[in-house]
């Protein structure tokens, strides 16, 4: 893999650097560095340590700069969405960015929509209402009198900030901007009325760029490569990159990007902004090649991840293989939860939150760890059925299959239960969907592929998919009738 590109892929729990190249027309990848990421608490506020993350990125780049057997043609950065870094007039960071799980935005939607009605906000943006959207974070910072925001001369989303550290150039990449809830999806411009109502300054955003734009060259002081390496504005929002990697044959598919969050949706040419999409709180985010990602956020593996942390503290370090065995041994549909209930957002104890939810709804509590794990996985599959049904109702084309991509697609039990629940085939893969989408946009930028069709053809060759056909559909339909009552 002499000629290659480098994907910098940062998630909520880990980051990774992945080299990729074409060898005889076939995609080859190599993970060259992986490191943890976690929210940090300080004085009752929650932050990301971007200084730590960038230290890892810089160390990885310097290791690569010492190698003579590779030539890096481009670099692309993707991360989670919504969070913002505040910079001063000299381009210096005023604070580590607040993390989207910080509860300072808990009341922001209710307060903001007294200024601009909820219906108006949705018509302007087509974005689902989540308390941590950038619009409400800016409002909460303004209301709180957060000093870094008061002093800021520039606002950068996380992928744009990492690209700025790499190049010294400031941009506002379209797909990550589209997570903010102040972008007009038709004009593709920031809505001034919404920004000003949040107490923010529209002039603090740098120019908007589309995926595929060269931001600048990697600075020699970051890593001493002997040649210039362009940093590309790929789909900076990790879900935007992940969806670009779906190896679909035609438009008649839904996708589920499965990780800490699950994001289920379809790819459309135009936004879907209707009374029904507003009622169901669906979102219209920017995709590559001018597409729209019409989707809904679902709490994904977060609940199980938090339970695993509690179990580990108690001396029970369950790996995913063990958890799968536990889940299959537990009785079916003993307990249920609504994974998207606000009580599971960031509770002091996830295990206690599950028990309290069941008690509050008159449901039998899980009696042991195996039942807890099965309850979480079954409830996720049932929630997927609900959202998949809504997508079928609103999609402008039939949905024949669900593609599950991302790390969560390795959970074959959940893949099968999802097929059972939705009553449609599930295709699982690729696992490193976000990084592969990042890579493909770099390939397009440097001329190795022409368009999304060629991208998906390459991915299909490199990624064997696993197919899951629906089973036990009558039992899952009966369970779904009970599950629906927990959600309304």
Tell me the layout of helices and strands:
Elements: E1 3-10, E2 14-23, E3 26-36, E4 39-42, E5 45-48, H1 50-65, E6 71-78, E7 84-87, H2 108-112, H3 118-125, H4 134-144, H5 147-151, E8 154-157, H6 158-167, E9 172-173, H7 174-177, E10 183-184, E11 189-190, H8 192-197, E12 208-209, E13 213-217, E14 230-233, H9 238-244, E15 253-258, E16 261-268, H10 275-279, E17 283-286, E18 292-299, H11 302-313, H12 320-329, H13 350-360, H14 369-394, E19 401-405, H15 412-422, E20 426-428, H16 433-445, H17 452-462, E21 466-468, H18 473-487
Parallel strand pairs: 1-6, 6-14, 9-12, 15-19, 19-20
Antiparallel strand pairs: 1-2, 2-3, 4-5, 7-8, 10-11, 13-14, 15-16, 16-18, 17-18, 20-21
Helix pairs in contact: 9-16, 12-14, 14-15, 14-18
Describe the structure.
With 488 residues, this protein is an alpha/beta fold. Helices cover 38% and strands 22% of the residues. The protein contains 18 helices and 21 strands. The strands form six sheets. A seven-stranded mixed β-sheet has the order 17-18-16-15-19-20-21, sandwiched between helices. The radius of gyration is 22 Å and the shape is globular. The model has no long low-confidence stretch (mean pLDDT 96).
């Amino acid at each position: 893999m002499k000629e290659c590109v480098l994907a910098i892929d940062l998630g909520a729990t880990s980051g990774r650097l992945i080299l990729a190249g074409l060898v005889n027309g076939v995609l080859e990848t190599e993970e060259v560095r992986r490191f943890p990421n976690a929210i940090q608490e300080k004085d009752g506020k929650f932050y990301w340590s971007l200084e730590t993350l960038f230290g890892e990125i810089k160390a990885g780049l310097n290791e690569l700069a010492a190698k003579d057997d590779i030539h890096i043609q481009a670099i692309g950065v993707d991360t989670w969405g919504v969070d913002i870094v505040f910079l001063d007039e000299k381009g210096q960071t005023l604070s580590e960015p607040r993390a989207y799980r910080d509860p300072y935005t808990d009341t922001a939607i209710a307060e903001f929509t007294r200024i601009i009605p909820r219906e108006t906000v949705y018509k302007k943006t087509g974005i689902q209402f989540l308390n941590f959207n950038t619009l409400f974070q800016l409002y909460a910072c303004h209301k709180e009198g957060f000093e870094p925001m008061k002093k800021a001369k520039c606002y950068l989303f996380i992928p744009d900030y990492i690209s700025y550290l790499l190049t010294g150039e400031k941009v506002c990449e379209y797909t990550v901007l589209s997570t903010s809830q102040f972008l007009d999806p038709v004009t593709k411009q920031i809505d001034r009325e919404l920004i000003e109502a949040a107490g923010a300054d529209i002039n603090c955003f740098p120019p908007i760029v589309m995926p595929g734009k060269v931001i600048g060259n990697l600075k020699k002081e970051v890593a001493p490569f002997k040649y210039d390496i362009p940093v590309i504005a790929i789909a900076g929002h990790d879900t935007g990159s992940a969806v670009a990697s779906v190896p679909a044959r035609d438009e008649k598919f839904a996708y589920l990007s499965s990780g800490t969050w699950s994001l289920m949706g379809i790819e459309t040419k135009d936004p879907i902004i209707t009374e029904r999409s507003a009622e169901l709180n669906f979102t219209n985010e920017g995709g590559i090649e001018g597409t729209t990602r019409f989707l809904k956020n679902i709490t994904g593996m977060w609940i199980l991840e938090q339970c695993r942390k509690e179990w580990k503290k108690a001396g029970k370090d369950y790996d995913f293989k063990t958890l799968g065995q536990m889940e299959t041994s537990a009785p079916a549909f003993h307990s249920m939860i609504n994974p998207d209930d606000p009580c599971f957002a960031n509770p002091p104890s996830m295990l206690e939150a599950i028990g309290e939810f069941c008690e509050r709804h008159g449901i039998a509590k899980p009696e042991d760890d195996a039942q807890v794990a099965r309850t979480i996985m079954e409830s996720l599959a049932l929630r997927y059925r609900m959202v998949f049904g809504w997508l079928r109702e609103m999609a402008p084309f039939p949905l024949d299959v669900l593609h599950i991509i991302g790390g969560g697609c390795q959970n074959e039990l959940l893949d099968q239960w999802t097929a059972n629940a939705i009553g449609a085939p599930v295709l699982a893969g690729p696992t490193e969907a976000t990084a592969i989408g990042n890579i493909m946009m770099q390939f397009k930028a440097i001329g190795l592929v022409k368009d999304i069709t060629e991208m998906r053809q390459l991915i299909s060759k490199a990624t064997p998919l696993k197919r899951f056909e629906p089973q036990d559909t009558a039992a899952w339909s009966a369970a779904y009738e009970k599950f629906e009552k927990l959600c309304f």
